[in-house]
User: Which sequence fits this backbone?
């Protein structure tokens, strides 16, 4: 199963909107077939492994990180292919949360006389590999991660000169792994105006779909000469309000930028509507990399599912340095937004990251 999980990890960023799956076929203590899924190649991991194993699959054991599918989509049911191969036993790390599968793959295999076992010890790692897919299948919405780089006192920007970086080059490289694993990334117009950022995936690794770059911009102030607009190839969306000038919308659209209108409270954009819209388009994950105001607006709107905060061994102090989440904030300690399942990650010398899930109210 460890080999199968390693196979699945090879598909990072290259399977959406499908899950990352790995499969290994073992016969008499020897691996005779292995495979992982890539969206562009269509074939699921089980099929790749079976093709490599050939006749050696008959009577063998298949280890797979996710329940074999039992429905017709872009390909036929993997469960049927496993049955036809003569595999005697299947060990899976977890059932598929997709309502079209949800145990029916296992049932089909058992009816055909194949022994099916669930490796409960491998389940947490398997679910972690597909946390966005699992979340999407359970909710119909993308998994939303709020990412930030901050000082030990929780600051993300100084009041005057913000040249340089808060975190190290190692931490910034790690951020690219998060971007690569995301379907969409969102920031606010303030960040774009201040940094003229590209907000792209710089991992250099291939992707199953372009990283959708989203700018929250209620008045359509995004400059036509910005790097974001000039680099747009169908992968930049601006979310605005009905109060934005029509001529600005037309100009951005002529430049290849998609403009969508989601009116929210107080003349702001509606974060819940953005997330629902992404879900309708089968975007499994959204990462937010923004400034203090947008960070708080996202948290307050309830769309954030988890955080990934990179901490540098620095303190800015002062009352004017921007906190990771600004806005009105909560007025009482008892009303603080709470997190659980907290994990610490060592990033570089004297640097660490905090990963945590929002605790439901």
Assistant:
């Amino acid at each position: 199963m460890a080999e199968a999980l390693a196979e699945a990890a090879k598909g990072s960023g290259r399977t959406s909107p499908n899950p990352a799956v790995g499969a290994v076929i073992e016969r008499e203590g020897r691996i005779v077939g292995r495979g992982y899924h890539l969206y562009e190649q269509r074939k699921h991991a089980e099929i790749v492994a079976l093709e490599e194993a050939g006749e050696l699959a008959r009577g063998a054991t298949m280890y797979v990180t996710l329940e074999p599918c039992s429905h017709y989509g872009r390909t036929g049911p993997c469960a049927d292919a496993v049955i036809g191969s003569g595999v005697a036993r299947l060990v899976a790390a977890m059932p598929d949360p997709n309502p079209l599968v949800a145990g029916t793959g296992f049932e089909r295999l058992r009816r055909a006389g194949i022994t099916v076992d669930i490796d409960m010890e491998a389940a947490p790692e398997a679910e972690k590999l597909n946390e966005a897919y699992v979340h999407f299948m359970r909710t119909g919405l993308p998994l939303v991660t709020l990412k930030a780089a901050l000082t030990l006192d929780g600051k993300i920007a100084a009041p005057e000169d913000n040249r340089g970086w808060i975190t190290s080059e190692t931490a910034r490289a790690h951020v690219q792994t998060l971007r690569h694993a995301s379907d969409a990334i969102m920031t606010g117009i303030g960040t774009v105006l201040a940094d003229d950022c590209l907000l792209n995936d710089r991992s250099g690794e291939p992707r199953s779909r372009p990283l959708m770059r989203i700018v929250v911009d209620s008045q359509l102030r995004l400059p036509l000469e910005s790097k974001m607009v000039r680099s747009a190839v169908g992968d930049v969306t601006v979310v605005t309000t009905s109060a934005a000038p029509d001529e600005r919308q037309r100009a951005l659209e002529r430049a290849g930028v998609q403009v969508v209108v989601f009116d929210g409270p107080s003349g702001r954009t509606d974060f819940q509507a953005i997330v629902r819209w992404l879900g309708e388009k089968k975007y499994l994950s959204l990462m937010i990399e923004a400034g203090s105001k947008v960070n708080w607006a996202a948290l307050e709107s309830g769309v954030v599912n988890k955080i990934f905060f990179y901490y540098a061994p620095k303190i800015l102090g002062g009352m004017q340095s921007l906190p990771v989440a600004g806005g009105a904030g909560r007025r009482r300690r008892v009303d603080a937004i709470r997190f659980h399942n907290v994990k610490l990650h060592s990033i570089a010398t004297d640097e660490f990251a905090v990963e945590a899930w929002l605790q439901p109210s």
